[in-house]
Amino acid sequence: MSQEIRNLEPKALWNKFADLNEVPRPSKKEERVIAFIKGFGEKLNLETIVDEVGNVIIKKPATPGLENRKTVVLQSHLDMVHQKNGDTVFDFDTQGIEMYVDADWVRAKGTTLGADNGLGVATIMAVLESTDIKHPALEALFTIDEETGMTGAMGLKGGLLKGDILLNLDTEEDDEIGIGCAGGIDVTAEREYNTEDTPENSAAYTITVKGLNGGHSGMDIHKGLGNANKIMNRLLFDSFENFGLQIVEINGGSLRNAIPRESVATVIISTIFDEAFVFDMQQVIGEIKAELKTMEPNLEIIFEKIDVVPQKVMDLGVQEGLIRAIYAAHNGVYRMSADISGLVETSNNIARVIVKDGKIYIGCLTRSSVESSKIDLADALRATFELIGCEVTQSGSYPGWTPNVDSAILEVLKDIYEKQNGEKPNVAACHAGLECGILGTNYPDMDMISFGPTIKGAHSPDERASISSAQKYWKFVLEILENIPVK
């Protein structure tokens, strides 16, 4: 299986990616991959530094003849999003990613692939290890924890890097050159609630929403994909309004930066409404599936009666507020950019909803390329959840990356791309969170650009990397390194 990947071209890139994918690297648990990269640099006898937060920096001198070129920082993040299908048995903490080739795509068996940002990491490793690739002086920057807070980029101190140009290898369309990105902020609502005795003559059901595409909560937020938490809440709202449904518990979504694919709730209903509840639920499910049939053809909504009726349910007053608040809370695109055509300016992802053991937890990730708009939407969410008595925190705020249309390195990349491909690249800002904006706070004079190979379905088990695109991208990287401007 791994050998199939290792035989792909360019072998230097795919072999390093296979090596990397053998190392478990969940966000906030990067000890093994930090040690792996540190050992890699030291084995090459290159200057290798691990800073106080865990970022790894490896420095390599210029190849002969390119000593007079500007120093380049090659940057990618070490961590990866961990998502798997509900029926996939896999331990991200101990297992390497199981990959396979599917026509022009490299995929993983029921899990995320880690191409985001593993292909960028592998690119840098291949360049560092090479003896025949021409390049200027390099500083390889491998950051940690990009996916759950960008704390690696935030913790990188000024002065550690001397580079003039930063190439971020974390863009996911091979015809795109990134010059800007959105910032983000986590909005978390929490409160406790009392439970009540389950009324007599009650029937219990589990409701399961699954089969959604999921995806990146920035890059895919405009596609009209289903959000399992919003779908579940719609079902609960309808049955509460019509039949007095009561909630036992809810477990929806997973990671803050992934559009939620699944949600499971346990509920009770009075037996006098049992037949009507089943009929109505079938009607609502049919409506939702019809609405989403184009974007979510594999959506499943299952409700099943369970034999053991739980003894406790959620306090009815708190439940009513919760259902109404989640219904009111904005999810999806909030505002499109007025300055860049087709760019999502501001959005929110209701990523996580947990109701269990007397506690409510709602986690959102709000993004925007305009700081004031980001805070405006975050405050709207805060107000919504505070109205039902939640304590709301706004944390992990990170800045966006303001586009620089006069970038010198941008002109270099545009010229090379057009020469290699016979067409102009798509120069754009994106709605994802790249580390460039954060890195720029301590390195304001560094000229930054972002690009990468085509990766689809990032942050979901459908993640896949294009083999032909990787070949195109590798050729692009090599010529960029050979054509860095003089100091």
List keywords for this structure.
single chain, 487 residues, alpha+beta, Aminopeptidase, Alpha-Beta Plaits, 2 domains, nine-stranded antiparallel sheet, six-stranded mixed sheet, 12 helices, 23 strands, 30% helix, 28% strand, hydrolase, metalloprotease, EC 3.4.13.18, metal-binding, Peptidase_M20
Q: How would you describe this structure to a colleague?
A:
There is one protein chain. With 487 residues, the protein is of the alpha+beta class. It folds into two domains: 2-182 and 400-482, Aminopeptidase; 185-398, Alpha-Beta Plaits (2-Layer Sandwich). It has twelve helices and 23 strands. Strand 17 (344-356) and strand 18 (359-368) form a beta hairpin. It starts with a helix and ends in a 5-residue tail after the last helix. The mean pLDDT is 96. Belongs to the peptidase M20C family. Residues 208-294 form the Peptidase M20 dimerisation domain. Keywords: Cobalt, Hydrolase, Metal-binding, Metalloprotease, Protease, Zinc.
Query: What is the CATH first-level class name of the largest domain?
Result: Alpha Beta
Amino-to-carboxy terminus distance: 45 Å
Number of helices: 12
Which percent bin holds the helix content? 25-40%
Class of secondary structure makeup? alpha+beta
Second CATH tier, the architecture of the largest domain? 3-Layer(aba) Sandwich
The portion of residues forming beta strands comes to 25-35%
Mean pLDDT: 96
User: What general outline do the C-alpha atoms trace?
Assistant: elongated
- Report on the biggest sheet: 9 strands, antiparallel
**What is the strand tally?**
23
At the fourth level of CATH, the homologous superfamily of the largest domain is Zn peptidases
What CATH calls the topology of the largest domain is Aminopeptidase
Number of domains: 2
Instruction: Give the low-pLDDT segments.
Output: none
Task: Please compute the radius of gyration using only Cα atoms.
Answer: 24 Å
Family: Belongs to the peptidase M20C family.
GO molecular function: metal ion binding; metallodipeptidase activity
EC number: 3.4.13.18
Organism: Flavobacterium subsaxonicum WB 4.1-42 = DSM 21790
